[in-house]
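Project standup — Tuesday

K.O.: blocked on the structure for the chain from last sprint. Re-posting the sequence here as requested.
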Amino acid sequence: MKPIFTILFILSFIVGKSQTSSQDTLQTKSYNSLLLLFNNTRDTTKAKQIARVYIEKSRIENDSNKMALGYVKMAQKSKRRKALKYLDTSITLTKKSKHINFPALAYINKSHLLYEKEEYEKSLQSAILGYQSSNKNNNIDQQITALHQIIRINELWGDYSKALETSLLTYKLLNANPEIEHYSEHYLYSLEDIGKCYIRLKKPDSALVYYNLAIEKTLKVKDSFTYLAFVSRTGSALYAKGNYNDALDSLQKGDKNRALYNNSYLPYFYYYVGSTYYNQGNKERGVPYLMKIDSIYEAKHVLNPELPFVYDKLVSYYRDKNEKEKQLEYLYKLVQVVRIIDAKRVNIKAKTEKEYLIPKLLEEKEELIEELNEKNKTSTLTTWWILGFLSISIIALFYYFRRQQQFKKRFENLIANQEKAKTKTSKLETDSSVISGVVIEDILKQLDLFESKNEFLSKDVSLNEVAKSFETNSTYLSKVINLKKDKNFSQYINDLRIDFAIKELEANKKFRRYTIKAIANDCGFKSSESFSKAFYKKFGIYPSYFVKQLEIKGK
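H.V.: unblocked you, prediction finished:
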């Protein structure tokens, strides 16, 4: 054995022995000691090892509650997909448990993970199950955590009035139980929830009451980070009141901690700063902020309720500049996001009304709302804003219907061309002056096989990879496609994918029910945007319009 391999062998033996020794040491520790070690360990691998020992120890002792806690700990240190599996295992182990923490703890953790994935309906369902479980076990801390999550989803996509009602009830529950764990944290969350709901309901004065309570609390405990977060929140309320200079001041102060805030912060900040400049008449300064929100949406496909207002402002801006292409681009996006957001709201609202019950709190509802709700005057500014939005919407609808007529004509032409294509045969010519006829014929046969096997649906298709699989070079393959298909390789692949999409959509009604993103993915495109652009470039209409017309015609 060579010296270097001898050293490596000895090192691996020592490491393996060290890990075994470490495992044995952990096995001797109590459950509380293991949890303490887990909570104080920053090393993910080490933390997982501790969690596995905790699970194994509880499995030997047949303690399902402790086993469930071990799986929750494993989930906290795992990637999302595995984490969800661990949490499902924890829920399965404790569905009939009478333990004060289970299965609510796993449901609530699952809800947070699903929320991060933007799976809001599933997240809401898990939060509701977590609330019901914690309510049954009379675990106030968990009830409030679950309620925060339910409010969070409803405040984004559900019924704002119901979200406010629940926020106020949660606030009341907190004030009645100041001794619970994490009281201060829950209290601040509650004030933020109430403030955001009042903003959505166009009641900024009420929002400021609760944001100022939070600011007082953070100053009292000297929490500068949370203080600045609430200063930023007051910016949104001041914007809604029309106090634009004060709004900008608050937003800029809060932006000092940008790097520490969550992913939803930047769209929020850009929206209020951009809209403030825009409403002040400084559109040239405001529009770049609004366009940053569009860029975030294009890159991450993360919706937020303010997107329609963003696109509405951009439509208006480019209409005033007489840039019709840009105007139509943002008008199309406006129509698309309104449709998606409306569908999301309807689904979540229905799920909330069907499954979400808080019986212990409902008895106090009328008394509490009467006590905490404030009467708010509708400002003249808000009225003019609504009238302005309606005017813009009417103009937008005019352009939308005009464009729909153009799309309809293009759709009819597309269907007619598809029918012709079914009876059309291609005639191939051989250009022996560039490549030999034998090579061309072989490549064409390979292309026919490539097309018949739908290999173009793979997202990893490239000129070099296809040439290699054909046992030829990329130059020959590119020239044959240029000569015989009258297009470059990229256009050739995109056209095959789009033709496949057309055939599937015409023949398969189930396929039409997929989202545009799912259709794009099944057809080999890396994003719904690249699919829509390629489809529009070839046929002059968008895939969503094509699907809609197929449904109307009952094909």
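K.O.: great, moving the ticket to review. The mean pLDDT is 82. The domain at 434-553 is CATH 1.10.10.60 (Arc Repressor Mutant, subunit A).
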